[in-house]
Amino acid sequence: MVYDNIVLIGFMGCGKSSVGKVLARQLHKKFIDVDNVIEAEQNSSISDIFETKGEEYFRTLEQKCINELTQNTGQVISTGGGVPIHSTISETSLIIYIDADFDVIVNRLSARERQKRPLFNDESRAKALFDQRKNIYKELATFSVDANQTIPTFIHVIVDFILDKRVK
Ligand code: S3P
Q: Taking the complete model, does pTM exceed 0.90, yes or no?
């Protein structure tokens, strides 16, 4: 199997974008963040889109965005935490789950980072969402990496796995 793209999935704040940037640099691929693409296209922040147009509208934007992005190949794509739940990801993607525990995520997210995430306003609701989603992420992933340590400690695990596969 030759994969078209590397797609990073996982809960809000698990480190998908930071991991994605490092991976793309190391693998000489282009890095793309779905949330950033949507914000640029809509000329609006994710929290404004949620507030003015609602979550359902945002989910349709996500599906459209991931469909369009996966028409191209050779990219490292970081997704929003809801993408694997609400959208379909092209089967030719190498999907990597950045698997961090909820406590680790809470400690990583600054107050400012939480504010940007409407579904993280309430920590107990976020924890319930995390519990609902965790197994879905795991089942969908080609590979899960334990992301409870700092990025430099686990990035090589992902790189080794990818180098063993064929990605366009
Ligand atoms: C969401 C995750 C966010 C963003 C939006 C909804 C979710 O992205 O897409 O706030 O449903 O988990 P990050 O995973 O980058 O925080």
A: yes
